[in-house]
Amino acid sequence: AAGHLGKALGLVNSIRSIPHLAAERKILLPLDLLKLHNFTEFGGQLEDSSKWATVIRDIADHADRHVSEARKLTKTILKQAYPALLFAVVVDHHLALLRRYNYDVFNAETRRTSLSLVF
């Protein structure tokens, strides 16, 4: 379960880094995924949120599948180990924000950190 949640967190963090990296003209996503979604030239389209939505949805769906797999495995985990899996709440929260704002990573609401999740 921890492995699946770790992968989901990594994918969500990759999504969260896109606006910052795009501003620096950098992309740290697999080229085959970008080409699949018609990102062939990266000139002026790095901040075009409409082009990013399909890429983000694809990555978010993959993260969501990992969270689902982790949930299936929680029945086999000792209750003492549950605190190690609490970051699933952060992953779920960010995936819900992405869905609510149509996978627009450049929207200020999807970039905001919820302090209530930190504590």
From TrEMBL:
It comes from the Eukaryota. It holds the Pfam family SQS_PSY. This is Uncharacterized protein. It comes from Trichinella nativa.
